[in-house]
Amino acid sequence: MISIIIPAYNAAATIERAIYSVQKHEPNAEIIVVENGSTDETADLVRKLEDKNVILVHSEKGVAKARNIGIKAATREWIAFLDADDLWLGTGGIKPEGDIAFYDYYKDSALISFKLKGEEILPWLLSKPTLRMTSWAKIFKRSFLIEQRILFDESLWVGEDAEFLLRAVQKAKTVKFYGYPLYRYCRETTSVMRSINDKRTEGYLQMLQSVKGIIRTADNMTQPAYLDFLCAHVNLIGVHDIYAYNIKLPWQRRNEMARALINNKIIYEDIIKLRPWDFMKLQRLPSSLFRYNMCTAGGLICFARSIYNQKLVQRKKMRII
Length: 321
Prior knowledge:
This protein has helices spanning 15-25, 42-47, 63-73, 121-127, 129-132, 142-147, 160-171, 200-215, 222-242, 251-263, 265-271, 285-291, 295-320; strands at 2-8, 30-35, 54-58, 78-81, 87-88, 100-107, 110-112, 138-141, 175-185. By secondary structure, it is of the alpha/beta class.
């Protein structure tokens, strides 16, 4: 029935746990582990499982490339994605329908539940991208992806999930929502978002430009929602790079980086649409402060969020140990 694709890069610490979670809840699932350039024992651990339903393939580095190889290798009616440090909770025996099926998920112990109440799906997605625009916790009809030639953009290495899902939803004839928790997202210290990478901002800018191109011809409800999408990613850049607590940079230099970010053409032409009353919206607050040149205030919010995120990761690590 379903092929579950697991990209795995140096995932020796968690790959067996991820696979077992699938085997427990979907014993007949085809599990495609795409090892993409690991230097640890990830591949050896998968081989030792000796399960005919677990297929090990290899790719070059890059999660988008790994997922595409998995899509092409899949043979079942449905396709889903599982990160190597997360857990599969199963469909509860409910067969998905439509081109794309959305499920609830746990973010650690918090249940993230999706319910559309007469809303258009594209603006709904864009308004809260970090919660809604993931490739996981969703099941895609394989024939739909193949016929519509929907693959991950391999030129993107940040935000490729959001760009992929946006294109998929635009082309889908039917999108179904199931109020059932399919997935558990686990915060791990090995996650790419927990390490410092000077080029990540460049990656975000490339992704934002791609998303703008996709929605350029969208309806009038979708265009304003892009501003929420933009603010969410400006906030991410602030939290994970410019104002990250573990980066040793003078505060003045951080503020200069924030101003340069806001003045980047890809961001500036939309960020100037923010108005003073946007200070009242939590998701738009740091971006609004940056837009009105109150970088220190916006930076303090990002800095505090960076510390909070790290504490959550440390608590998770202690529970695992």
